[in-house]
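Let us work through a complete example step by step.
Step 1: write down the sequence.
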Amino acid sequence: MLKRINDALPGLVIGILIYGAVLEIAGLFFVEDKLYHTVGALTGTALACFMAIHMAIVIRDVADLGNADGAKKLSVRKSVLRYLIVAVVIFAIAKWRLGNLVSLFLGVLGLKISAYLQPLINKLKQ
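Step 2: predict the structure and record it as tokens.
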């Protein structure tokens, strides 16, 4: 299903999930409150997956529009929505102390790390 949205999306999401698993396991050795870390890391990893999928959908929708001005407006509107959702989740985690914010941030960074590793992973696949 993800491949129908974007050819690179499945690899990106798999990379995020692998990074999230490594983050979770590593954190269990180094943090005192393991449940707090787990909630933060899993929430951050879920946010990273959401962001990757949402960006791929927006790119596809923008490409299908064909109108440069409308495409720019749609892209900006959807990007603001995506970051607003991420900000609300981070705010909720912080306000009600549901999870570790550092772990959450590191989980969200999985999107960047997976994106940077994609060329290396694709080269290793060949």
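Step 3: interpret the result. DSSP finds six helices and no strands in the chain.
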